[in-house]
Amino acid sequence: MDGQWVRPLGEQQLGDASYYGSEFNGRRMANGRRFDPRSTSVAHRTLPFGTKVLVTNLGNGRSATATVEDRGPFVRGRIIDLSPRLAEHLGMLMQGVAPVEVTPVELAEAPN
């Protein structure tokens, strides 16, 4: 796969999550689609587009399933950017950043 390392299915990653600000609404994501704040889209640095992940807020135990559709985040210590809908579901809108566990549950095929 072009030497790019991708986490195996089910391997957990721990770190901080943040969420997209309103300035990203309607902008093109790395997969070419436009960002919808009501979606279950997330940005991850390495997982293939279309991969389903389970994101768990370690502060309150809330979880949500999401789909990798963009690249990022590009802030040190952050491992995933969430749509505002997901951030609200996970109870992290007020603080903006929360410690999470990200587990791939359905790995998309990487394009050739």
TrEMBL record:
Q: Gene3D superfamilies annotated for this entry?
A: RlpA-like domain (2.40.40.10)
Single biological process term from Gene Ontology: cell wall organization
Give yes or no: UniProt keyword Protein transport. no
CDD domains given for it? DPBB_RlpA-like (cd22268)
Q: Which GO terms describe its molecular function?
A: lytic endotransglycosylase activity
Presence of the UniProt keyword Membrane in the record: no
Ranges for the RlpA-like protein double-psi beta-barrel domain?
15-102
- Briefly state the protein's biological role: Lytic transglycosylase with a strong preference for naked glycan strands that lack stem peptides.
Q: Which PANTHER family match?
A: ENDOLYTIC PEPTIDOGLYCAN TRANSGLYCOSYLASE RLPA, ENDOLYTIC PEPTIDOGLYCAN TRANSGLYCOSYLASE RLPA-RELATED
Protein name as annotated: Endolytic peptidoglycan transglycosylase RlpA
